Amino acid sequence: MDIEIITIGDELLLGFTIDTNAAHLAQELAGIGIQVVRRATVGDGAGGIAAAVREALDRTGAVITTGGLGPTSDDLTKPAIAELFGRALTRDEAIVANLERIWKERGRPGPLPAPNLQQAMIPDGACVLVNRHGTAPGIWLEDDRGRWVAMLPGVPREMRGMLADELLPLLRRRAGSADRVVRSRTLRTTGLAESSAAVQLGDIARHVAGLPLAYLPGIDGLDLRLTARDMPPAEADARLAEGIEQLRARLARYVYGEGTDDLAAVVLQLCRERALRIAVAESCTGGLLGARLTAVPGSSDVVEGGVVAYDNRVKQALLGVRESDLRDGGAVSEPVARQMATGVRGRLGTAVGIGITGVAGPSGGTPDKPVGTVWLALDVEGAVRAARTIFVGDRDEIRRRAAQAALDMLRRAITA
């Protein structure tokens, strides 16, 4: 089965919202042997929606749309596609009752606003896709030639939930058992440049286990993705497993996970297994490292706390950084980073202390300390190490790269 995806919304065309829905749909559909052959984005206008859907139906006869199912005047997906199919819109009283229930459960005052009733207007002959994650129901609309459109909401959380709950099971039944699939696996690395990875991979740099290899650099590091196309499921899984093991063997010290693994979660688990608690002292990252760690559920059994020591007076008063070192070498220096790590470890009574100090920019750089210069220090039960790195990017990127590098320093230290 070949499918086209149409994402709808002026905010997507204007660049105010990044389209994550199409990527998620393509990944999930590939897993059940359904290939996305074209993706398009159109604005909120009814004419543009209808034209895009009409052209897609003429090509493949199978279309998934996201967006335009809400209660406001710019939500025109349903009426545009209903008109294209020659169907009238009829109010579904069961949906009205559900909307009223949700409105009351959320503690909203007064009766359900009239615009919300637009969400209860369903094209004649359509199948309603239940939305357990929001208010906008999805729609499955099919003509007498077997051509169909599945309409999903544009809010990513709702779209993903409805895809898993309603649409994927429906498509599995319709497509039958997939005898050939498209599947991918991704290995996550950090501290490794794209060109360096190619050198270390050597003779397998282009194809691994007979599969094409994609290099995906980002702020957190370099992801390496293998894709098996048009293969029986068992063969695809076996080839992917073989390829991932080959990549791990070549790049072992840089690898921290697979898929969507978060380095912060990996580090927390490693510390948890070793009964190590963490304290962080941050200057240029301004609490970003602490935020990364505490964003992971269950982090309270590992993370003790932290100090955002942005001003030198805080470094001295709370972390014990010597005034002479601040004066002689400046705040961005190895002695200061080391004292920050040791100071926060002692102050909070933990086994691990991490110190970060640097020049995040865009100003403040000097010839010997250009923008992007960061000193990282790690104190694990009294054993202190430090490293200087010059990160590239804007202020946000430098800060994020610094937090990732600090996590990787700890990962390597406790797994050495």
Describe the structure.
With 416 residues, the chain is an alpha/beta fold. The chain has three domains: 2-175, Molybdenum Cofactor Biosythetic Enzyme, Chain A; 181-258, 2-Layer Sandwich (Alpha-Beta Plaits); 263-415, Alpha-Beta Complex (Maf protein), CATH 3.90.950. 40% of the residues lie in helices and 26% in strands. The chain has helices at residues 10-13, 21-30, 46-59, 77-84, 93-105, 156-175, 194-201, 233-251, 263-273, 288-294, 312-319, 323-329, 334-348, 395-415, and strands at 2-8, 35-42, 62-66, 89-91, 121-123, 127-129, 138-142, 148-152, 181-189, 207-208, 211-218, 221-231, 255-258, 278-282, 303-308, 352-358, 373-380, 383-390. A six-stranded mixed β-sheet has the order 2-1-3-8-7-6, with helices on both faces. It has a five-stranded antiparallel β-sheet with strand order 10-11-12-9-13. The radius of gyration is 27 Å and the shape is globular. The protein starts with a strand and ends with a helix. The mean pLDDT is 95.
